[in-house]
Design goal:
Chain B: It is an enzyme of class 1 (oxidoreductase). Chain B: It holds the Pfam family Glu_synthase. Chain B: It comes from Kordiimonas lipolytica. The complex is a heterotrimer. By secondary structure, chain A is an alpha/beta fold. In chain A, about 10% of the residues lie in helices and about 25% in strands. Chain A is built from two helices and eleven strands, in the order E-H-E-E-E-E-E-E-E-E-E-H-E. Chain A is elongated, with a radius of gyration of 18 Å. Chain B has one domain: TIM Barrel. Helix content of chain B is about 35%, strand content about 15%. Chain B is globular, with a radius of gyration of 22 Å. The N and C termini of chain B lie far apart (about 45 Å). Chain C is α+β, with helices and mostly antiparallel strands. Chain C folds into two domains: about 220 residues, Aminohydrolase, N-terminal nucleophile (Ntn) domain (Glutamine Phosphoribosylpyrophosphate, subunit 1, domain 1, 4-Layer Sandwich); about 70 residues, Alpha-Beta Plaits. Chain C has seven helices and 16 strands. In chain C, strands 7-2-8-1-14-13-15 form a seven-stranded antiparallel beta sheet, covered by helices on one side. Chain C has a five-stranded antiparallel beta sheet with strand order 9-10-11-12-16. A four-stranded antiparallel beta sheet of chain C has the order 4-5-3-6, covered by helices on one side. In chain C, a hairpin with a 3-residue loop joins strand 13 and strand 14. The chains are: A alpha/beta, B alpha/beta, C alpha+beta. Chains A and B meet through helix 1 of A and helix 4 and helix 6 of B.
Chain lengths: ~230, ~425, ~300
């Protein structure tokens, strides 16, 4: 159990301490206080530790996380858990743009709303948002799953590859090559597992599924207007 | 080729190439996508000449008196700057556009002569990491294959903002080259056309870039240098902003820089020549007193030791080669002439890297074609070529009386044309006239 | 490329501490740019028979009394004034027209940074730390302020090129981002009679807002029209006599965050600039939606976004 007060120690010291933890370290519970919107807090962690951040954070909080379980009791800035590989990041408040951008794995839970480009270019991460997501959510999403319990903004799933999207509320508009798809039993099961993992008490049947129409996978001149 | 009968006059405007392009567009409805760099003539380093020593200066004796070539990159913030034996590095080229054997050969060749090589869009392969003593990890908008483990294995990180062949554009890898392995590395379905992003997904602008650089430094514990690569366009401002954002090294890629697959219109019509861009970058660095403190690597059409020496004289700390390195590996080699003809090309003209049918086994993912490239032999050819470039650079530096290639100066050169004099900011040969000054 | 901060006090009891609350916000944005720094501060309002001019000269020993004497003679009334570093604030009788024409003919080197009943614009080359100290921002009083730290992109690092840019009486604009069509737009606006001092893209945004308002548009209407006419990436914040307005382009890559408590409305490029404000832990925090105009003011509907407003 270690505590770091960012009013007293620098981000560098805290991150170095987190990076110096190795598998099997005794110190697996870390608390960070007074983040004050600072950037790059707990980025590049590479061990199965638990990090609790008490307050709002700036850009790239928990960036490239691997194995760790990171919880932010506040809002997060741009690019929370960007390029995450594994582990869990839970945000109790809202997330700014590009949450979970290009992330390859792990679970990102946002209990508030997520702004624009949530899950942009996602590559395998699971993202569960209790509130709503802004425009261009899952833009160019390659793989992974995104669950939105609230509404989605404009151009949901634009240029989607194989990421699967579940939205409970309204979708303002679908992006190029994104379509609503049938919710089959395996999808209800998948969604239920994601909601359970995120600790969200929602009925999977209330959601709709969206995915790629796969019309832009290879260039066709007839799709001109979509390019 | 049809022979021209007397009296038939070809239009300079609508010549046979143009007519062919229009007909092709009309038939297929798609623009031309190709590899290689700009093919149009632009002012280049050939238009500059060195003033060798005679009475007023003293030359160094070739092969006997030392003329050093080492360079250190990333001295501004990194705990572990990169030390290279020669000021010539291998530019970023992706696994995916190139075969695994080609990537391995680049690593082997670079390592043999003590220089670095660079990953590309699509991530780091074990082959190239294993065979590259110094490996620069590119951090690109698409983030294909990007992961923190490889990031920490890298000797430097190169944040790519743009590329000389297509500043402002994203990458393109057509379906033929998205094989199982490439698809798996990039988390994409097999066989699709992969369109890479032109902008990074989680930052926009140099103010945000400052924070992104700090993140990369935090993740790597401030150990490795961070490069910023830009395509040559508004080079003075871009260099200034790269430095303000916190770069250790600026990589400047002129419009002649190569590509694996880009629209021909982009390759030929966007960006400025390497010759025109380099003095702008140096001017920006000098203005903020960062020349030689933030190192400058220049690429885009470097072929010979003369090109290298001229870049260094204009103020670069090192150069980077891509297309020339592929040629050294065996790209466009006459031994494959019959095969080139089968696919409608010819040795010396082959630029269809996007098709993945490279007879030389370099820009392909076809297992049978790949086998044609022996990474050891090809790596050795590259090493030989790099040695020649280095020796040629030294020959020119010694002739100008320099015991280190970095002591070459713009004042050691004159220009043959008004255009090159204006761009390089050196006087027209035989005069003291620098146009515009 | 820049950092933006804004603070509008709803609780008048805090007006004596405006500068003390605001200076740390500005300084926190130093990482986003330290080429130049500027603020617009509102307060110490003159009655409407007068205007307040902020004038600046690059020579720190400039003969300001001579300027003031000329102004007094020109408008035929005494001028109340004070100096702050290289700038002075002069309270001049009239609507400012006579004063401005006199300044441009007799003192062409003097820059008129702002004009209005309440606004004062102070800006210079240097980091927010340096500029805050230079103009003693922590000691300032007022109703609201907006500020800017600049990382210059394509135009020169000069005091003229620093933000905020005046856009009319009691109006100014700061910008974070990069406009991609400002050259053609500048040429067009010049034809419409808008005067530009620099090649700065943000000045074009300021000139655009001024032009639209001269046409009789409201500030909100001008900003909604800007969404169609300004191409590129931007977060704009416009200071007004009684508040400020915020708009982001429709792609909305450039950051902005808003905070509201019973005591104030604040905006910044990043949350960390807000972290030092009292009661921020319990503030309502949100990001402005892309392509929507938000405005606050004593006369406007406090804290209500005007996103529904459409151009007539």
């Amino acid at each position: 159990m270690s505590e770091y007060d960012l009013q007293k120690v620098s981000i560098r010291e805290v991150n170095q301490a987190l990076h110096d933890l190795t598998d099997g370290a005794n110190d697996t519970e870390i608390t960070i206080s007074n983040p004050g919107g600072m950037h790059n807090i707990a980025c590049g962690v590479d061990s199965p530790v638990s990090v609790k951040i008490d307050g709002h954070t700036g850009y790239y909080c928990a960036g490239m996380n691997k194995l760790a379980n990171i919880e932010v009791n506040g809002n997060v800035g741009t690019g929370v858990a960007e390029n995450m590989m594994s582990g869990t990041v839970r945000v109790r408040g809202n997330a700014s743009q590009s949450a979970g951008a290009t992330a390859h794995g792990g679970l990102l839970v946002i209990e508030g709303d997520a702004a624009a480009r949530c899950g942009i270019s996602m590559k395998g991460i699971d993202i569960v948002v209790k509130g709503s997501v802004g425009h261009l959510a899952a833009f160019m999403g390659q793989s992974g799953r995104m669950v939105v319990c609230g509404d989605a903004g404009d151009a949901l799933g634009d240029s989607l590859y194989e990421a699967r999207l579940y939205v409970k509320g309204k979708v303002k508009s679908l992006g190029a090559d994104c379509i609503e798809k049938e919710m089959r039993p395996e999808h209800l099961e998948e969604l239920k597992a994601l909601l359970d993992a995120a600790g969200m008490d929602e009925d999977p049947k209330a959601f709709k599924r969206y995915g790629s129409a796969r019309q832009l996978y290879n260039f066709k001149v007839d799709n001109m207007s979509a390019y | 080729m049809t022979t021209q009968r007397p009296g038939l006059r070809e239009s300079a405007l609508f010549n046979r190439d143009v007519i062919h392009d229009i007909q092709h567009a009309a038939e297929t409805g798609i623009y031309d996508i190709r590899g290689f760099g700009a093919k149009r003539p632009v002012p280049h380093f050939d238009d500059l000449l060195f003033l060798g020593a005679s009475a007023s200066r003293y030359p160094l004796e070739g092969y006997r008196e030392r003329c050093d070539t080492n360079v250190i990159l990333g001295t501004r913030y990194a705990k572990n700057p990169i030390e290279l034996d020669i000021p010539i590095t291998i530019a970023g080229m992706s696994f995916g556009s190139l075969s695994a054997n080609a990537k391995e050969a680049l690593g082997r060749g670079a390592t043999e002569v003590g220089t670095s090589t660079t990953t590309g869009d699509g991530g780091m392969t074990p082959e190239e990491r294993g065979h590259s003593k110094k490996l620069v990890y590119q951090y690109l908008p698409s983030r294909y294959g990007m992961n923190p483990d490889d990031l920490r294995k890298a000797d430097a990180i190169e944040i790519v903002l743009g590329q000389g062949a297509k500043p402002g554009g994203g990458g393109m890898l057509l379906g033929q080259k998205i094989t199982d392995r490439v698809a798996q590395m990039r988390n994409l379905p097999k066989g699709i056309d992969q369109r890479s992003a032109c902008r990074h997904p989680d930052w926009t602008g140099s103010d945000d870039l400052t924070l992104k650089i700090l993140e990369l430094r935090e993740i790597t514990d401030w150990k490795v240098p961070i490069y910023i690569k830009v395509g040559a366009t508004r080079t003075y401002y871009d260099t200034m902003l790269a430095v303000k954002s916190g770069a250790d090294v600026v990589v400047l890629d002129g419009m002649q820089g190569g590509t694996a697959a880009t629209q021909d219109v982009f390759i030929e019509h966007v960006g400025i020549p390497t010759l025109a861009a380099l003095p702008q970058a140096v001017e920006a660095l000098q203005e903020i007193d960062m020349h030689r403190k933030v190192q400058l690597i220049v690429s885009g059409g470097i072929r010979s030791g003369a090109d290298v020496a001229k870049c260094l004289a204009l103020g670069a700390d090192a150069v980077s080669i891509g297309t020339a390195a592929l040629i050294a590996l065996g790209c466009n080699h006459p031994q494959w002439q019959a095969e080139y003809e089968k696919i409608g090309s010819s040795a010396g003209f082959y630029d269809d890297y996007q098709d993945g049918k490279d007879p030389a086994g370099i820009s392909t993912q076809d297992p049978e074609l790949m086998k044609r490239l022996d990474p050891k032999a090809a790596g050795h050819r590259l090493a030989n070529y790099l040695r020649v470039l280095t020796m040629e650079t030294q020959i020119l530096a010694r002739a100008c009386g320099k015991s280190h290639v970095h002591n070459l100066e713009p004042e050691d050169m004159v220009a043959l044309t008004i255009e090159s004099a204006a761009m390089a900011r050196v006087p027209l040969a035989g005069t003291s006239w620098i146009p515009g000054q | 490329m820049c950092g933006i901060v804004g603070l509008y006090l709803k609780n008048s009891a805090l007006q004596g501490k405006l500068g003390a609350l605001f200076a740390p916000m500005l300084i926190e944005m130093a990482d986003r740019g330290r080429d130049s720094t500027g603020i617009a501060i509102y307060g110490d309002e003159v009655d409407d028979s007068h205007v307040k001019l902020t004038l600046q000269h690059e020579d720190i020993n400039f003969d300001w009394p001579a300027v003031v004497a000329a102004l007094e003679k020109g408008v035929g009334a005494p001028v109340d004034w004070f100096q702050n570093a290289g700038a002075i604030v002069a309270k001049v009788k009239g609507d400012g027209t006579a004063a401005r024409s006199l300044l441009s003919s007799e003192f062409p080197d003097v820059a008129v940074r702002s004009i209005g009943l309440s606004i004062e614009i102070l800006k210079d080359i240097g980091s927010p730390e340096a500029i805050s100290e230079k103009f003693n921002i922590p000691g300032m009083k007022g109703t609201h302020a907006i500020g800017h730290t600049r990382m210059a992109t394509e135009s020169a690092v000069t005091t003229d090129g620093s933000h905020p840019f005046s856009t009319g009486y009691d109006l100014c604009l700061v910008h974070n981002g990069s406009l991609s069509n400002h050259n053609r737009l500048r040429a067009y606006l010049k034809k419409q009679g808008i005067v530009f001092e620099t090649m700065n893209d943000s000045e074009v945004a300021a000139g655009y807002v001024m032009w639209r308002m001269q046409q009789g548009k409201s500030l909100e209407e001008a900003l909604i029209a800007a969404l169609d006419d300004l191409d590129g990436f931007y977060t704009l914040t416009v200071g007004t006599r009684d508040g400020f307005a915020v708009v982001r382009d429709r792609i909305a890559c450039k950051p902005a965050i808003l905070a509201e408590t019973d005591d104030y409305v604040a905006m910044a490029s990043e949350y960390r600039a807000l972290a030092s404000l009292p009661g921020i832990k319990n503030a309502r925090l949100w990001e402005p939606e892309p392509g929507e105009v938000y405005a606050w003011g004593h006369t406007a509907h406090e804290g209500i976004s005007r996103q529904e407003l459409e151009l007539a």
